[in-house]
Amino acid sequence: MAEPSGDTPEQYRKDRVLLDSYLDWAAGEGVPVIEDFGVDLLAAETAPWDRFGVDGAIINLKGRGNYSSTFLLEIPPGASSAPMRHLFEAVYYVLKGHGSTRVEAHNGASHSFEWGPKALFALPLNAPYQMFNGSGAEPVRMAATTNAPMVMNLYHSESFVFGNDHWFAGREGEEGRFAGDGEMTPIRPGRVLWDTNFVPDAGAFELKPWEARGVGSGNMQFILADGIMGAHASEMPVGTYKKGHRHGPGLHVFTVHGSGYTLLWYQGDEDFQRVEWRHGMVFAPPNKMFHQHFGTSNNHARYLAIGLGSKRYPVVQLRRAGSENNRSDVSIKKGGRQIEYEDQDPRIHPLWLRELAVTGVPSRMGKFFDEEAMLRELKTSAAE
Ligand SMILES: [Fe+2]
Fold first, then answer.
1. What distance in angstroms lies between residue 244's CA and the mean position of ligand 1's atoms?
2. Are 116 and 159 in the same domain?
3. Do 153 and 227 reside in the same domain of the chain?
4. Mind listing the pLDDT tens digit for each residue in 202-246?
5. 378 and 320 in one domain?
6. CA of 112 to the centre of ligand 1 (A)
7. What pTM, to 2 d.p., does this model score?
8. Cβ-based burial of 246 (10 A; exposed 0-12, middle 13-18, buried ≥19)
9. 374 and 237 in a common domain
10. 3-state SS assignment for residue 182
11. Cα 340 to Cα 243: distance, rounded to the nearest angstrom
């Protein structure tokens, strides 16, 4: 028997043990592989990505879990991406620029649709598509949140994932889905579904009330191209914030408009981690890490969350369980995963009041907290 060979990722590859087929594939793509807690996608470095025919980078967030990750694409002015089909799903969110996507259907038809900043869309699984920058002057930046990690690890065959000619005709949806048509299904607050392939402006799409997640909170769940990748938009009115909660990993949060911040912490942590909100940021709350979103600007603060498990196809037990019991909008004191305002860490509200003092936005949370006492306290400690 040979001597033990050692315990490093390089040696695992040589010994053919503990492999991650997605990470190995990503390392061979020739583009930056960025691993971080949160990433500013508008500032992230890209390099030519032969597979897509444009520049790009692979974003592996710390909280992405096992199944999903984000690809960043930059299409130069007047250029187009390489024609492409793949067996993983991709939910595209446009960060900047204007362009169009042409997607082929099983019956030989093709659909083209135009998009601009904050458009959200998905192509039917494995449908051939190509993207065009419609501007001669401005580059396009877009993020594709995918389940490539799941699919590459499932098959560990690049040629199968990128070279399969099967048509998933049922995913194309009815005529008009690429033009932004859709179907609304209200189930309960926080579970209102908009079923489409294309949302022209995720920043303007009308949300529905979900008061249980925070005062004035709004939400919409998107089913895109009948996919297993889920997306939802969520918003808090001016002068408010969401309640803290926690759930499984892999939800990629994109800040859409408004400014503010997110605090994240594990139960028992002394301090919070903090992510600043600005257009172009993405982060993913890690597994079971509490997180709470705060608006501080004088317009609504909205974000998009994209990850594996749609409301139609939760795929994993964690996502299904979150819909049935152990809900993310029910207090942890009642077996759920949310921290009600009255139970939150006493540092949280004064910290937010201090932020509001900077932006000059009035709080609309006075009925939940003794804000006068908190402001007196802040003044006293500032004077000391
Ligand atoms: Fe969350």
1. 8
2. yes
3. yes
4. 999 999 999 888 888 999 999 999 999 999 999 999 999 999 999
5. no
6. 34
7. 0.95
8. buried
9. no
10. coil
11. 6
pLDDT higher than 60, residue 75:
yes
- The residue segments making up the domain with residue 67 are 1-345
**Termini Cα distance of the chain:** 71
Structural contact between residues 256 and 202, judged by C-beta atoms closer than 8 angstroms: yes
DSSP state of 5: -
Give the Å distance between the CA of 246 and the centre of ligand 1: 6
Question: What is the Cα–Cα distance from 208 to 177, expressed in whole angstroms?
Answer: 21
The answer for residues whose C-beta is within 8 angstroms of residue 374's C-beta and 6 or more apart is: 349, 350, 353
What is the rounded CA–CA span in Å between residue 291 and residue 213?
12
| Three-class DSSP category at 256 | strand
User: What confidence tens digit (pLDDT) does each residue in 356-366 have?
Assistant: 999 999 999 99
Do residues 231 and 224 lie in contact, with contact meaning Cβ atoms separated by under 8 Å?
Answer: yes
Question: Is 64 in contact with 88 (CB distance < 8 Å)?
Answer: no
If you measure from the C-alpha of residue 351 to the centroid of ligand 1, how many angstroms do you get, rounded to a whole number? 20
Q: The tokens 């900077």 sit on which residue?
A: 358
Total number of domains constituting the chain: 2
Q: What is the token pair recorded at 354?
A: 């201090």
